[in-house]
Predict the 3D structure of the following.
Amino acid sequence: MSGPWGQPQPHSPQADPAHPPAGRRTSWRVVLVHTATFRQARSFVPALLGLGAVVGTRLDAGPWTVVALVVGVTLASLGFAALSWWRFSYTDGETAMVVTRGLLSRSVRTVPNDRVRGVEVEAPALHRVFGLVRVRVDAAAGAVSNDEEELVVDGLTPAEADRLRTHLLTRRAPDVPAEAFEPEPVEEEFARFDNRWLLYAPLVGSYLAVPLAAVGALFRLTDELPDRWRPELDRPDLADGTVVVLVVVAAALLLVVGAVVGSALVNWRFRLVRRGGSLVAVRGLVTRRHTELEVDRIRGAAVSEGLGMRCVRAARATALVTGLGDATRRGQLLPLGPREEAWALALRLVEDPGPLRAHPPAARRRRVVRAVAGGVVVTAGGVLLLALTGQCWLLAVGVVLAVLGVPLGLGRYAALGHAAGPRSFTVRSGWLVREQVVLQRRAVVGWQVRQSFFQRRQGLATVVAAVGAGSGGYQALDVAAADAAPFAAAASGRWAATLSDPG
Amino acid sequence: MTQLPPDRPAPPAPPTAAARLPAWSLSRDAIALWTVEGVLGSLFWVAVVTALEVFAPLPTWLRVLLPVLVAVDAVVMIGVRPRLRYRVHRWEVTDEAVYTLTGWLSRTWTLVPVSRIQTVDVTRGVVQQLFGLATVAVMTASSQGTVRVLHLEADVATRVADDLARRAERVRDEAT
């Protein structure tokens, strides 16, 4: 079986990213910009500083030394800028945009025109002086985070930038269907916050943190107050039990009230409506926040329940949306509410994939063993300590930890589950915060199957669905190894069968 | 025309494996490249340990232990690891997807459909250029959906990238 690229394929030279017709260059003036900003030389600064320190100790730091240093650094910067300008070229072909760069190691990046989401032209001050602009091509939104990986063409003339942008965007235009009709903006209410739900707030970790942070700030403030402004208080008699109890009760009350107030500030009169093609959420007491999500870009929903929330059957629901920054806050469907409400909302966006399937017994064994392992190590240390010094406190701690590990492991196992329905699939995990994610089949942009040494011995595997929304990947922890490939195939397209059948 | 992706039949997967083996192995030159990397790494450690032995006041047991550790490390990194990695890294491009397997103790299979490819990168590091090798990275909208195929012959890598980019353009899909 030879690859499809085995035979030379007939195609127009224009469309061949490997042999571009003519790599276009950026304007040479960008070398000056980069020299001034130390764009490339910046990464060598630590080395130069070290060198400078060595040189500095040897030489008297006269004015000439300084001048020489400045000239040298500038020349170095010029050199690097010129080199990287010389090694950089781009081609916007019929089907793809290709960017070639790299001083020593060469990198060729190909972006199919189809995948270009947007083109941004920016003109920083220094660029404007030289009559240049910078073009950012927005393509692989999720995969790139550091700017090393970003697709940036730096130093084009505005005219060339315009040409490039029009070329990239008009290539894309035909596959975006023209809006044939303007849909009536019908408003449909999805959710409305019931103020009684604010009482759930003290059981949610993030809301509990609000009063704690406030108390911390208060303490800092009193620390910085001058002494004479501090009220004279008699030192409370700590030995008196009632005082301690009072303080604890007061602190607990403060926490509870603070959490409720904090959650009220953020979630006051939360309302989620569907207006045409988008979901609009409005909330907040002091500042009204207004967030809009395109329904078309929703790929799934997550329902998460913390340990405390589970006791009162509360949950929160979040939409998983592609290309949404700050997704956890902006994607919120229901910040806090009864579990039934959260699920009803989530299932309005994604089809119900059916009941969860439990994971094999080996998964339970693995969860328990992992939860107990830490305690066992401490116990072993305790035995050693007992033998050497006769102290037994570490042994006791170890035994308690190990015993507590059993319910923890069982709890974590109970949280595991996965299921694939006709149009969607779901995975659930987590004990401290149990999260169940329901995703549409089309959400999957790739699969990762992981199997550690121990998992292989126990016949388990972890299946991760790579998704261009939310946290980027959602895993089904410890499914039976034999189930991994069938689950992937059932939860996404035909292509996932590659995992099991030779292509 | 140059060597095609090696057409070595994949050994049958053990029953506990979660997915099948991808069909092709990397370029054989990858072994040489990893060996060179291992030699460079070992030289670095030899230099460090030599410097320590000469300049630092070490207890005697450490004086004996450090060279032994370095020797063991060198044997593993030069003699064992390159061959092991060559056997473990496998890849395949099918009509619909890119498929790789990496890792020895902990194994990871990654599968990305052509219809969801967003960018294709070909990178040639300095050492790779000595051996005429290149790495292909296929990226999607998800940070966890990246497939990297290390150390292919440079022209195979270019053709793979070219072919994938062209097919990705042809398969019109939302890609996210």
About this structure: The longest helix of chain A spans residues 361-389. The radius of gyration of chain A is 30 Å. Chain A touches chain B through 79 residues (CB under 8 Å). The first strand of chain A starts at residue 89 and ends at 92.
